[in-house]
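Thread: quick sanity check before group meeting

JM: Hey all, I'm pulling together slides for Thursday and realized we never actually wrote out the predicted structure for the chain we discussed last week. Dropping the sequence here so it's in one place. If anyone has concerns about the input, flag it before I start.
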Amino acid sequence: MAGAILLVDDSIPLHRLVGHQLEPDQVKLHSAYDGESALALALSHRPDLILMDVDLPQLDGFEACRRLKANPATASIPIIFLSADSIDGDKIKGLDLGAMDYITKPFKPEELRARVRAALRSKDDLDAATMIDGLTGLWNGQYFQIQLTAKLALARRMGRSLACIVADVDHLDALNASRGRDFGNDVLRSVARIMLGQLRAEDTVCRLDGGRFGLLICGANRAGAAHLTDRLRAQIERQLPPRGSKIAVTCSFGVADTHIADDASILDRADAAVDRAKQSGRNRVCIARHLAEEEQLAA
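JM (edit): ok, ran it. Output follows.
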């Protein structure tokens, strides 16, 4: 395993300890001792991974993480929090801010190395993919799949819910045929802008393909995500179409969560729900059902 790691902690002995424990993996270790320095070094060195203490001078680890994730130049750098505090609330806060993992001190060397290896593999996967959708500027479907796998694993470890939302622009093919592809592209860019404006920094929104968008909402169940989704639906209906046209533009939505879908099917269940929304008249939100309920209705 090779890679550059930025360690952010105000304890000099900890830097020596981590350096010794990661020495067999031949990583390059950079050091910062406060939050402000971490921001500067992350921007200048672009490490493959940041290991960051929560309790830091000047700027605590949570705020440093929030700023790193808000900056497009550093947003994709994975962050693992290191903390002597094992309170679940702090772990959840860190993960909600966009960190990919949380290790409680004192940690075992083999645990640290395993978590670091997993994080660096994830970064390699992200770097290998073309992750930006050229039309909307959102992350693309490859990035969505990587994030879905990572967020599902975290949700499982923390015992938390993850909501998956699929949105589909209604009648996009007809809009392209009647008004031209430039108009349809403007619609997609406007939908992307509205979604970005409504989501938190720790949530994920991607353009999957065509007029389909995928959203991952951390710590939300399908009922809570449905409220957010209906707000998005209403805002899209109210603000679109672009260029002052009188043509109505709407989206249909499907919502699923980890309480009714296993790791392999949450996206499929959200897709099935958006199909049901379209069959029910479009411009609406449908929540995925439990499999037993779907089988009963199909019988």
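AS: nice. The first strand starts at residue 4 and ends at 8. The two ends are 53 Å apart (CA to CA).
JM: adding both to the slides.
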